[in-house]
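Handout, section 4.2: multi-component inputs.
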Amino acid sequence: MSFLPNIVGFACQWCTYAGADLAGNLRAKYPPSIKLIKVPCSGRVEPEHVMEAFAKGADGVMIGGCHFGDCHYKTGNYKTANRMKILAKLLEDSGFDARRFRLEWISGAEGYRFAEVVEEFTKELQQLGPNPLKGGE
Amino acid sequence: MAKVGVYVCHCGSNIAGVIDVAAVRDFAATLPDVVIARKDLFMCSDSGQEMVKQDVRDGLVDRVVVAACTPRTHEPIFRAAVEKAGLNKYLFEMANIRDQASWVHGHDHEGATEKAKLVVASAVGKARNLEPLEDKFVPVTDAALVIGGGIGGISAALELANMGHKTYLVEKRPSIGGVMAQLDKTFPTNDCSACILTPMMVEAFNHPNIETLTYSEVDDVEGYIGNFKVKVRRKQTYVDWNKCTGCGDCASKCPSKTPDEFNAGLSDRRAAYIMFPQAVPKKAVIDLDHCINCAGREIGTAPKINQKTGKPILAPCERACPAEAIDRSLVHDPQGAIKEIEVGSIVVATGYQVMEKDWFKEMAPASPNVVTALQLERIISATGPTEGKLLRPSDREKPHTITFVSCMGSRDEHFHSYCSRFCCMYMIKQARLIKEKYPDMVINMHFIDVRAAGKGYDEYYTGARKMGINFFKGKVGGLEMLPGDKLRVLAYDMESATSIDYASDLVVLATAVELPQDAVSLAQKLGLQFCGSNFFRELHPKLGPVETATEGLFLAGCCQGPKDIPDTVSQAKGAAAAAAVPLAQGRVKIEPIISEVRAEVCSGCGICAPLCPYHAISMKRAGEERPRAVIEMSACKGCGVCTSACPSGAIVLHGYEETQIFAQIEALTA
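Output:
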């Protein structure tokens, strides 16, 4: 059996966190790989948070926010998108596989989609194997 | 050092059926700073809460973590409990091990238990770093805004006004009344729609506490519960409503025709028009998109002078108006005027539209004798294009066979998967009204199912069967246009397991209920979210049916999901009651989950200020020092965008502080 990746998820409380709750209500099944940290807005997530999670050995990191136009704070998700685009590039440039890092827009109504995204991300990480930084200094 | 208490909930078997609760508790006991770890069958029950309170009162714990369901529903309950026991309620944290663990990992008990341990560790990590916070209170503007002047909006406005609150009722069309004003009669009592609605329209319009703003739209909303600042755009009517008496002379003289929205496009109205005879307010509007500028009289230009008489040549509408309410030489701002209002709460009751028949290519939409149910409603209405006579559109002849088709675009994965809920009943109503008047007419109704689940509804349906109306269970596959303006109906009857093929004179499509396009931009202005069916999303499908994720913003009627008139009125009254709560309290609580600048760390770079979606950050200079960012507390909504952007780490988002998030990351990657 392949390993179960450890995914640190940052989820905005209005959309993706609510979508994850809805997945529960719907009893949608997905692997117990992801653990969510609730944030008010995906715009609260700093690149440092993502880097810290990878440095500490997380196999994957996912940031979940509202769809464009749906942000509870009007434009927070646009800022996230801009910030994280740069971060993904930096990760890639420094030789770290940016496929381990995902930015997903999942609404509070998309319970099944949340489950599908986690399932799919988990499979991808299983193919990529454990985070090479794991256990490093 | 913090003294953290961890309380793991079984939630009956909801959590314990999957997760080894005792193992999670034992693991929690090993975490740093955890002094107590307990479990209970239902932590939210009185005894569960009491267990927490007792530990707080005994001074055993000063931080509380409950591992149970989602904080989105239960955090307020536990916060209130710890507060009652004497602990600052912001020293509480929840670990979501039900909605995001046991319910979704039922196939992997061991994996779910391991995940639950990490989620609890994450919550404990955050709890150790929590700081006490104080709620802030701000005064409330004692006024409400109701958006949408249909039966839902009118009901909500009347309820609020009768409770003594100043209420603004905003309607985008020239008159209030909504779709209900277009209906002939209403099920299951066959009450005349106008007879029960128009008195309410008049009552609302004349109510001393209600200010009705028709032909107006919400342009912008700022602020928060208790203190919303709303810009309402009063669209340009080109008619002086202070003078207009609603006589309709301008409309009778106006030569320009365009399809009449009120008659669902079955007849024409003029460019100068009054929406319908019972309109409230009964005022004329000139629709400039269809105005042809008679006599070269463009709005805002001086009239030409008749060379012979020396008198100005006026446009027909101007000449017709006995009240001199139309003066085309006046310069009007096409954007209308902005009215700024301040309110404490908002009820959204913007209603719905029905799908047009053109979506359904297999249903011969090109035939004038294929109509939507709303169009039939106008045909059988005394105020409609045929003055209530049942005449088919193509030749204005009485039909002999009428076909009703249900679920057009509803319960159909190509369009909308949901049930539009009230189509079955209004189709039965229409069929009954027709059958009562013309007993010889053949009425064939094709349903997937007949849904008649309301008070008196099934009796109404059974009555229809007894009247000789034919009901077929099964879908209509398609329609074909036949000579003589007839339509060939190709259907299937599941009860006799045979296909049906017959000619019909008039086919009525019960098209699906959906949100109008402009609801999307309104949602963005208000900060509303959509549900999976693309209606506005309520806070909780069961326990928060009128509330939304934005405090002070409430929903009523079909904008939240399809519902009939009784349900709309019930929800509107519920929304009004909920909207009145902050107004009655006189002050509202502002959660202290907002950002604050540590001035001594701020370098004054100003990166944060333009990022704030609420313009809450300004750069202020004290004396000769560098400028520093200052956040206006009442404008901040706590998104944390500035906190993340600050290169100096000078901005703290209370409740989501840097130390707290890093502690969670550390716990999850341990």
